[in-house]
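Protein fold
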Amino acid sequence: QVQVVESGGDLVQAGGSLRLSCEVSGLSFSTSDMAWYRQAPGKRREFLARISSGGHKLHDASVKGRFTISRDNAVNTVYLQMNNLKPEDTAVYYCNRLPNVSWGQGTQVTVSS
């Protein structure tokens, strides 16, 4: 059974930084492409970044230059480093395999102005 557990969300001030983690089990992590998404209140879930099994990265234009995706295959974990956070980054953040499998609970990020 695939399990995805996100962590690292917090309440931070605008301009601050957070590092989110996503630990995955129940699938072949090292051969899986992974992605981060977020969902703000009243909005659809949106794609943020992806990283291939070989480490190739792609970031959505909305976060490029501020967010960085990375992975550590030794611990089956994908990360999202978020810098210069803005109030509009407030959302629940999720990770998932590509193609998507079951969703985790997400981790809440709240950015105060």
User: Anything to note?
Assistant: The mean pLDDT is 96. DSSP finds no helices and ten strands in the chain.
